Amino acid sequence: MSEADHIHPVRDTIERLENLGNEDTITLGMMIEAFGPTSFVPALMVPAILVVSPLSGIPLFSTICGLSIALIALQMVFARRFVWLPRVLLKRRVHRARLQSALRRMHGLADRLDRIARDRFRVLVYPPGNRLPQAMCVVSGGSMPLLELVPFSSSILGMAVLSCSVAFIARDGLFVFLGAGFMALGALIPAYVLTTIGS
């Protein structure tokens, strides 16, 4: 596959978010709507990118992103045709300047992920195998509200979801294994914190 033919799903998503409108504040709904109501994978990737970015330090931001991820992934499991999220999530706002600053810091990670994406292990990204990464995203997103106060855990789970999103777009099942690794790491952090507190 030549460089010209190589897809750049993460970088393309970030650049589209950076170019959203001219408003001072951007809502999660605006970000998701930019990709269309049937674009489940980009809709899944948006909150994953946001929770991996420095924006995850905003109180309750990881919870909003996690619930969005869990709901979108659950709809993928049940093969819904259109993305739906409750208004309370869609109305979540972030200042445009802060969003763009956080996204600029994601360019390096985006380029690294896009560079290694290839067509591999397709059994994990086509039915019925794709149910596994979809379920992984449901679990990762649903766990974020529970781990709001545990440093880095939500961002690590966000990387798991981002990896699965790249797997879906690039048809690269290797990213499913990468996502599983991030999930395992995300589970170790709260376990370590609880053990430390208990001792």
Automatic annotation (TrEMBL):
Coiled-coil ranges from the UniProt annotation: none
Keywords attached to this entry: Membrane, Transmembrane, Transmembrane helix
Signal peptide span: none
A Pfam family the protein falls into: ExoD
Transmembrane segments: 34-52, 58-83, 149-169, 175-194
PANTHER family: EXOPOLYSACCHARIDE SYNTHESIS PROTEIN
Protein name in the entry: Exopolysaccharide synthesis protein
Organism: Salibaculum griseiflavum
